[in-house]
Amino acid sequence: MVGPNGAGKSTIMKAILGLFNYPSGKITIDGQPVSQTSHQALEKVGALIEYPGIYPFLSGLQHLELFSNDGVSKQQVMEIVDKMKMGSYIKRKAKTYSLGMKQKLGIALALVNHPEFVILDEPMNGLDPQANKDLRTIIMDLAKQGTTFLISSHILSELEKLIDDLVVIDKGQIVYRGDMATLESDSTRSMVLQTSDNDKAKDILTQNGYQLIDSDEGHISIVEDEKTKMADIIKLLSTNDIEIEDVKHVHSDLETSLLNLLQNDKVKEG
Amino acid sequence: MVTLVKQELFKLVHKKSTWITSVLMLVIMTIYAFIARNNANTFDPKAIYIGLFTGMTWVVFFMIAASSSIISMEFQYGTIKELLYRKYYRGEILVSKWITMFLYSVYFMLLAFVYALILKVTVLNSNFQLSENYGYKHSILTTTIYTSLAQFVSLWLILSLVLLLANLFKSSAAAISVGIIGYFAISIISSLLAIVIKKWTWLKWNPLNMMNYPNQVASPSLKHITLLSTNELLIGSLVYMAIFLGISYVVFKRRSV
Ligand SMILES: Nc1ncnc2c1ncn2[C@@H]1O[C@H](COP(=O)(O)OP(=O)(O)OP(=O)(O)O)[C@@H](O)[C@H]1O
Ligand SMILES: [Mg+2]
């Protein structure tokens, strides 16, 4: 789940967890309704919303003991600690933890009861690159075993590596729903050329039916589709005595696609 | 519910303040016991014993602090989300906190009571006998038990208000101040209250007047001032308690976090 600051991502997650009083609509998990007063469906749900809640007077391990269900053994708790690589400080008081250490504890708390559905709100917050990778591995492994994850994040490059489905929220409304590839392929791919005479080349290419993207003087951007062949372009330009100095394919990334999407969506303020 | 109470107790026993306050109370009680022995002429050792060597006052202080923080700390630390999103009903979470505080207050009362007995037989052994008649018609020991129980009721009247305020404001500072002021207000404004009640009789049902319950248990003649019988004060206290806790329950159940 992605969306601008204040789009309502955390709010949606809170509503799913029965923490937020929503005026209308219905939320169900596995067919069971969830609201502030009905929580039975949340038995199999783990979550980390916004920032981890931490009791300063308890150690990390005591947090995990406190929130683990009766069925979860000490050994299972330690497994998670190991997976998150928290072993070296898990017995220390949580108030001494750094931002990333707290974050890891929050994630461990979300996972400790082996939930079937895990909600993580910006889980990569404050994690170092290694921890980020570890987290990714953990999520992928659990997902393979059948755990469903709902993750919100602003770090698109991270999300890209993780997700199957994408929901884009803007001002409280869903503006895109589908897989990541579709969102990316909706956007244009282009070929960027550097030639000995850019102005002349532009004229020639336009005359031959190629669609150009307005760009600054330094280079030429050609909109690419299935019919665009590099060989044709090279031939066309060389017959006109223009040398090609550099060619690049530019695949507009998720970020660009997303920004375009958010700019063009029809969601009204308020 | 048992699980939830256990979890609350787990947090309570791992808080340093839980043990520091207990030790502090015992130390202060000991000091008072010695003061009472060494200045038996200025202080009445019997009265000081019945007041559990000021132990009761400290129980009130520490319980007000503990009750306000048991709710507000969850908001302060951001743990309220973890606490509430689980399978348990919200009401259960709140009630588990009340039960925990009840157990804690019983622990405190027993600690103060038993330690006062110990101080009596050690430090003040020769000063008076527990079986001596005191004041109204009971022995010193019986009077102490009755007064302590009555004070326990008053304590919970205050605590129910503190629990409500901590819940409303999500902050312990406000709840603690009102709790402590409420507890001491009665001794400060009692004469004013007496005048007001005399003028508008229906005001005798106000919660501050209910705080006179332990005093009236100790000296029944107070009923001419409170204009309520001792039992009416007890029932009034319980009704206010129920009202305050009831509002807490409704607020907590509907709150978005
Ligand atoms: N559907 C909605 N209708 C009305 N108000 C909403 C809705 N969703 C969210 N809000 C309000 O928008 C504000 C911000 O929401 P929220 O904290 O969920 O943002 P967010 O998407 O998590 O932002 P961030 O990326 O900064 O974490 C809140 O005050 C919330 O009450
Ligand atoms: Mg958010």
Task: Indicate the mean pLDDT of chain B.
Answer: 88
CATH top level assignment of the largest domain in chain A:
Alpha Beta
Distance between the termini of chain A: 21 Å
- The amount of beta strand of chain B, in percent, is under 5%
Structural class category of chain B: mainly alpha
Strand order in the largest sheet of chain A: 9-10-8-11
Fraction in helix of chain B: over 70%
In the predicted model, the low-confidence regions of chain A spanning at least 5 consecutive residues are: none
How many strands in all of chain A? 11
The low-confidence parts of chain B are none
Order of helices and strands of chain B: HHHHHHEEHHHHHH
**Radius of gyration of chain B, Cα only, in angstroms?**
20 Å
Helix percent band of chain A: 25-40%
Query: What characterizes the major β-sheet of chain A?
Result: 4 strands, antiparallel
CA-CA gap between termini of chain B: 22 Å
Q: How would the global form of chain B be characterised?
A: globular
Give the topology string of chain A: H per helix, E per strand: HEEEHHHEHEHEEHEHEEHEH
Number of helices of chain A: 10
Spatial arrangement of strands, main beta sheet of chain B: 1-2
CATH evolutionary superfamily of the largest domain in chain A: P-loop containing nucleotide triphosphate hydrolases
What quaternary form is this? heterodimer
Protein name (chain B): Membrane spanning protein
Keywords (chain B): Membrane, Transmembrane, Transmembrane helix
Organism (chain B): Lentilactobacillus farraginis DSM 18382 = JCM 14108
GO molecular function (chain A): ATP binding; ATP hydrolysis activity
